[in-house]
Amino acid sequence: MLTVALHRYLSALMLFLLPAGAAGLAEAKNAPWSAQAPQNTAPLIAAANSFVQDILSRAGSPSAVSISFQNLSQLTAETQQAAQDAILNSLRGAGVRLVKPEMALAEVHVTFSEDWQGYVWIAQIKQGPGSQLVISRLPRPERTASVRAPTLTLRKVPVWIQDGQILDFFVDNQNLVILEPAQLSVYANDNGQWRQRYTLSINRAQPWPRDLRGKLQVNGLQLSAFLPGTLCTGSLSPPSLDCHSSDDPWPLDQGQLVAFFSARRNFFNGILAGPSAGVSVVPFFSAVTWPGTNQRQWLFTGTDGRARFYLNDLSSPATTFNSWGSNLAVVHSGCSTGWQVLVSSSTDSIRPDSVEAIEMAGREAQTVSSAVDLAGPVSAMWTSGKNSETVNGVMQLPSIGKYEAFTLTVSCN
Description:
By secondary structure, the chain is mostly beta strands. The chain contains 3 helices and 30 strands. The two termini are 42 Å apart.
């Protein structure tokens, strides 16, 4: 990953250092093509033809060239090969002979790269003592979950509504614990009604960052509250809570995934701990992991608006998705494949949200439930329950200016 990042940085630096007119920049005027194995190769061929035309125009239409390729993007090996074949065929179609470097009138080195906007093809053309660049940008395909008839039912159950902000909560048959910016509020079940028992203050040395987030863990009578730059530990009985400055990582997904949270922002910085200690990914808002058939799977919703799916290892994403929201949570329902990922919709912080269940089939995401429409935007979703069978969610209700805590479960049809 460091090598890839370094190559991308050098490529970007090279672009800024180019003198005027040293590089030709082309926008591919065709439909988006898939980074995975493309079934419709027409857009890929069109992009290759346009790219080759720019190369030949820049190089003065040499009759013999040598060409080499390098892939620094998330193109699969199959798609990279298809792109290379399209470029080679386009050169041959233009009457250019492909020869060894010592016989070439021009040497061309093609790099398949990418940035946050899309894919970037870079051709470095060497002729004599000088070199030139041709750069072509291709739009990133919009990857969405494939839709099929809903096979599972996603249910939402309201738990609690209050005026003050809710960061996270814990609920069982006897207790309701609400994590708020300034305190923990503890309620007891009184004949089906929640009655407040006591509050525990959260002391902090520094002001909270904007868009405050928190994570609550309750194990028996012991509790932990993870907040930006702060860790609180205590007990429900006897009531106690001690808060102190801390950069300890936050446990996600019942502790199967552990990551460091930014002390002054509202996202994870990408450095992992726990079972994946020593691994780094891009900064993210939410992440989940769950077992597959002889496979390990991860999903991260990056701060750049892209969700990244990793299969078996965290060295590079197997695929990306661009149309999901920033909140993810995994649930173990026992239905279908056994595990589902609950995904919030891509919306802003004002409009109502929705949540649906998806399953991964290889590198493809499949929607397996109807969406549950919510009355406001989701601010938190965390896996809960002893066996990860419940997801705790929090949303703000703009119509009444309150916050609602709710649970989500998946059941078999």
